[in-house]
Each structure stands twice: as C-alpha cells, then as structure tokens.
Amino acid sequence: MPDMIDSIEALEALYGVPNDASTVKEVPVITPEYRAMIEASPFAALATSGPEGLDCSPRGDRPGELVRVADERTLLMPDRRGNNRIDSLRNILRDPRVGLMFLIPGHGNALRVNGRARVSASPALLESFAVEGRAPRSVIVIAVESVYFQCARAVIRARLWEAGAQVAPGSLPTPGRILASLSEGKVGGEPYDSGWAARAKETMW
C-alpha cells in the first residue's frame, strides 16, 4: 500500500505534540478520582500478550466487584466462570504485562490501567470474592504502573449508550448458528441457543 508510515518521526510529524491535558492525566497510582471510576464500572476489557499472540477478554461483574481496589497500586480481578479457554491466564503466566479498559454505562469517559499481573489461588482471597456461595477459581493480582482516563470522543461517535443505536433483536447471527456453520452442524444450532439462558443461570458465578 502506498504512503505507509514507517517511522516514529513521520508519525509524530503527522500528529504533532499532545497537549497538557493528554499527558498530566496519566499517573502511576490509583487516585481517589480514578478509584471512583473503577468502582462504578461493571465492564472492562483485559488485554494480554503471550507466545501464541494477543488476547483481549471481556470481563463483567457487579460494580465494585469487577475489580477490587486493594490499595493505590494494586487491583484484584476475580476470574469468573467462562469458556475455560483461560487464554488471559496462560498469557499472564508467560508475560505479566496487562492492559485494562473500563467502561461505565451512561458515562462518556473510559478508564485505562496498565500494569503487571500474577494469578493467585489463595483460598482466603477466592472466598472473599464468592457470590451465591461460589468462589472464582483464581484472582488476577495487578500491580498498577499507569492509570489515565480516555476522553469521550470514541463513546460519542459510537453512540454507545444511546438506546436508538442498539441493534434489533435477531438481526445478527446467533452463537448457535455461528457454531453450527463452523462445525458443519456438529456443534451449536438451535438447541444451543434455546438452552443458553438456563446454562448461563447455572454457571454465572
């Protein structure tokens, strides 16, 4: 492709220098203001890297329990029930660098956290995250290195919190349909879709 940018110098010449508001917001600790945002968030994307490549995993939980602020430099994220691929955890064991992006429904700004993670199976820690008598199998312990908010432009452009921007039910392929297509009908299909709500209820925590 023509006109590809292949140097930092060319990139900086194109974009210029970030203003003070873009740089002063980044700090190495969780400030009271950033803590309030973390504790209000029920959703985050967790980015990790490993020998097999990159992974970005959606994480959702009750506000305040999605990620617990242990102190100004430490976050605790329970690994709730999922598909058991454990891609994020595999990556963390080989490369501890992680990135988090928190979203808060109705709030324009996102919050970003970068740091290094470990995986804990401490019984006391797991039990502290139990919901309805079910504890997670592990907790991701994140040593914070940088925290900053992302301005609302992307959320505004996406109309993320506007009801009128929501897709119509049934307008996209269902998980069962996707699985059936990829497996020549061996996995998924209508039974997968019709049984999902009951399965999710049983395995939510």
From TrEMBL:
Q: Where are the transmembrane segments?
A: none
Q: Which Gene3D superfamilies does its entry note? A: Electron Transport, Fmn-binding Protein, Chain A
Q: Which residues form the Pyridoxamine 5'-phosphate oxidase N-terminal domain?
A: 30-151
Q: Which InterPro entries match?
A: Pyridox_Oxase_FMN-dep, Pyridox_Oxase_N, Split_barrel_FMN-bd
| Entry-linked PANTHER family | FAD-BINDING, PUTATIVE (AFU_ORTHOLOGUE AFUA_6G07600)-RELATED (PTHR42815:SF2)
Query: Which protein, by its recorded name, is this?
Result: Pyridoxamine 5'-phosphate oxidase N-terminal domain-containing protein
UniProt source species: Muricoccus pecuniae
Q: What is the taxonomic lineage of the source species?
A: Bacteria, Pseudomonadati, Pseudomonadota, Alphaproteobacteria, Acetobacterales
